């Protein structure tokens, strides 16, 4: 929906997995617009590429196989007018710092799982295995909402959607 609303020319996604969210983004892109999506799991990215091709959007999607923390510093310019962050929760702050540098004023950033099933919003831990990610998201959410270079909000939709505009 955000892709349809903002009609971005260049979208950056961090965390492709098998291409589910990427398909929604790619299908909503106008002619000539592109999605660049980063995934560190080669098997997942292979499935994603098949899915993009089968859906007829392969030509709109540029995939990068690698660790986003290594890929992002190598990208340059204010080239992405929309970004979707949905990878390792403990790394969100680092992704965001890189992503903001790659976007012009007015660029839109969307971040998934900021409420983390309530665990990042004062709710109980679902399992000990989420302890680190929940702590990281509590810290990240403060950082995200406090950044002066963003106008940011966390929407209680789904698992918590971060929505920001680069100032
Ligand atoms: C929640 S899944 C993404 C789901 C996808 N965005 C969707 O909605 O269909 C998170 C993905 O991020 C990938 N990932 C985690 N850390 C990463 C990193 N540092 N660099 C690149 N990919 C990463 C994982 O391999 C996993 O496939």
What does this protein structure show overall?
By secondary structure, the protein is α/β, with parallel strands linked by helices. The protein has helices at residues 2-6, 20-28, 42-54, 68-71, 92-101, 131-146; strands spanning 10-14, 34-39, 61-65, 82-85, 108-111, 150-155, 161-166. Strands 3-2-1-4-5-7-6 form a seven-stranded mixed beta sheet, sandwiched between helices. Strand 6 (150-155) and strand 7 (161-166) form a beta hairpin. The longest helix is centred in the C-terminal third of the chain and has 16 residues, at 131-146. The protein starts with a helix and ends with a strand. The site of S-adenosylmethionine (SAM) has 16 residues, from helix 2, strand 2 and helix 4.
End-to-end gap: 22 Å
Which distinct ligands sit in these coordinates? S-adenosylmethionine
Largest sheet: 7 strands, mixed
> What is the CATH superfamily label?
Vaccinia Virus protein VP39
Number of strands: 7
Shape: globular
- What is the H-and-E element order? HEHEHEHEHEHEE
The strands making up the biggest β-sheet line up spatially as 3-2-1-4-5-7-6
Tell me, rounded to a whole number, the average pLDDT: 97
- Individual helix count: 6
What's the SSE blueprint?
Elements: H1 2-6, E1 10-14, H2 20-28, E2 34-39, H3 42-54, E3 61-65, H4 68-71, E4 82-85, H5 92-101, E5 108-111, H6 131-146, E6 150-155, E7 161-166
Parallel strand pairs: 1-2, 1-4, 2-3, 4-5
Antiparallel strand pairs: 5-7, 6-7
This protein binds S-adenosylmethionine (SAM).
S-adenosylmethionine binds at residues 15, 17, 20-21, 38-41, 44, 67-69, 86-88, 91.
